[in-house]
Each structure stands twice: as structure tokens, then as C-alpha cells.
Amino acid sequence: MEAAAPHSPAEAPAPGVTTEFTVTSPEQMRELGRRVAKLLRAGDLVMLRGELGAGKTTLTRGLGEGLGVRGAVTSPTFVIARVHPSLGGGPPLVHVDAYRLAGGLDEMEDLDLDVSLPESVIVVEWGENKVEGLTDDRLHVVIHRAVGDTTDEVRHITVAGLGERWAAVDLGVLSA
């Protein structure tokens, strides 16, 4: 992984602690997920944004590996959410795909994410304008890829920590 060039302000996530990367393969994306997992703890909300096929689920597989959870991490598009219990006493991973949900937090309420959040790591794909009300502290991961070119594996990733929880976290360790 290497540091990426900054994106235009229109593409930037909300202000906070931010770092950028470029990955060139699905394995590098999973490795980034494993590194992010080392920073996570129960109560963390991770929001993933990116085009279809950008690598959101691949990153989440790496998060699951890094957190040591049970079960294959696959896209929860048709079931909306999957819970992966920890194999070693750590927090479970709740993986949500909000793509098919049109409403905001009210529609997400049926998933009881607010109940799960204190003891889990919750990862939400397509969660913008839907789950921000869960907590002021969250990690945004934005994945950019070339649109229309399905053979290009290059991804530019911006990781931004928002809120008090992330203020003192050195996201630069993700590039090590």
C-alpha cells in the first residue's frame, strides 16, 4: 500500500483524523481491513462508501479476519445484516448492507443496531444518511475505483475518524 494523492474537496469525507492509501489488489484490500481491525473495539461504527465492486466487502473480510470472527464474511445485500461472533472473546462483527434500505435511521431501527453497538463492531456499507445518528464517533472509509473499467484493481481509499473516539488515534499506522 502506498499513500494516495488527495482527492478534491467535493470527494473528501467529513473533517477529522484522515489518511489515504492506494491498493492494487484484493489481497491488499483485505490486508488493509486486517490493519484497521487492530484499531477497532466494541462500540465502533465503521461506514463504508464506494461504487459497486469497489471492494467494500473485501475490506470487511479483512476486518473479520483481523477481529477473529466466525463465519465467512460475504455481502449481506439480500439479508441486510449478518452477525459474526468472535472466536476469541473479542467483539462480534455486525456487517450491514443498507443499499436496499431507502429510509434513514428509522428504517434501520428494526435491525437494533443501537442495541448491538456497545458490544459489537458494526460495519455498514451504503450507510450514509442512514446510521450517523447511532454515534458521533465513527470511522468513514471511502473507496474510489475507476468507473466502467472492471479489470482495474487500483483503489484509492480515504479513512477518516470522526468524533472524540478517533481524535487521538494515529491512522498513519495503517500504512505501516
Salient structural properties:
single chain, 24% strand, seven-stranded mixed β-sheet, alpha/beta, 5 helices, 20% helix, 176 residues, disordered N terminus
Describe the structure in brief.
This protein is an alpha/beta fold and 176 residues long.
Please characterize this protein's 3D structure:
- The chain has helices spanning 26-37, 56-67, 105-108, 113-116, 164-167, and strands spanning 17-23, 45-50, 81-84, 93-97, 121-125, 138-145, 155-162.
- Helix content is 20%, strand content 24%.
- The protein has five helices and seven strands.
- Strands 1-7-6-2-5-4-3 form a seven-stranded mixed sheet.
Secondary structure layout plus pairing:
Layout: E1 17-23, H1 26-37, E2 45-50, H2 56-67, E3 81-84, E4 93-97, H3 105-108, H4 113-116, E5 121-125, E6 138-145, E7 155-162, H5 164-167
Parallel strand pairs: 2-5, 2-6, 4-5
Antiparallel strand pairs: 1-7, 3-4, 6-7
Helix pairs in contact: 1-2
- The whole-angstrom Rg is 15 Å
Number of strands: 7
Oligomer: single chain
> Average pLDDT value?
82
Number of helices: 5
- The strand order across the widest sheet is 1-7-6-2-5-4-3
Compressed to H and E, one letter per element, the order equals EHEHEEHHEEEH
